[in-house]
Amino acid sequence: MVAFDFDGTLTVRDSYTAFLKWRTPAAAWWLGGVRLAPAALAYLFHRDRGRIKAAATKVFLGGVPRERLEADARRFAELYSRKLLRPDAVIAWKRWRAKRVKLVIVTASPDVVVAPFARGLAADGILGTPLAYDAQDRVTGVFASPNCRGPEKVARIRAAYGEDVEVRAAYGDTSGDTEMLAMAAEPYYRVFSGRP
User: Fold this and answer.
1) Total-model pTM
2) pLDDT tens track for 81-121
3) At what angle are helices 49-61 and 15-23 packed, to 10 degrees?
4) Topology of domain 2-189, per CATH?
5) Which residues of 98-136 are buried (b: 16+ CB within 10 A; e: fewer)?
6) Where are the domains of the chain?
7) Does residue 157 contact residue 128 with C-beta atoms inside 8 Å?
8) HEC states along 21-83?
């Protein structure tokens, strides 16, 4: 298999923040930023990206029905895939596709948001951070598993594809990809710079 990080690797910027801003009216976005201020301040001390992401999820998506969220994610991908995806990363993706390897996106972003992009790329799999839903199938504002970053990326790859999975190549752009890159025969760090 070949593993690609999503945000900053396949895309030019963080897709989840872009998605939240896209689906939130300007006044609500500003108000949400105010509500997130305590979590942002706490982040300066704990440096846990999962906690700040969960806080943003609760503020901007708490109570949203799963069906609506999935529809919004599909629409966002339709409108923004050409603006977000790096052309040189897509070329590398297609080169690997021609070699008939299993192509998997491994991302800390919520899988529901990245899934439409993954379908557009004909990915063989996506390993992301799943959101939790309540009994009415609405977003609770917490994650259903640990944030898919750092060592968790390796754990998720092995859980999905087996302990002896062969990662032929991996692509990443941050310290959150270090462990995934280390398990690959061909690690590629920050090799894409193309802009749409």
Assistant:
1) 0.94
2) 999 999 999 999 999 999 989 999 999 999 999 999 999 99
3) 20
4) Rossmann fold (3.40.50)
5) eeeebbbbbbbbbbbbbbbbbeebebeebbbbebebeee
6) 2-189
7) no
8) HHHCCHHHHHHHHHHHHHHHHHHHHHCCHHHHHHHHHHHHHCCCEHHHHHHHHHHHHHHHHHH
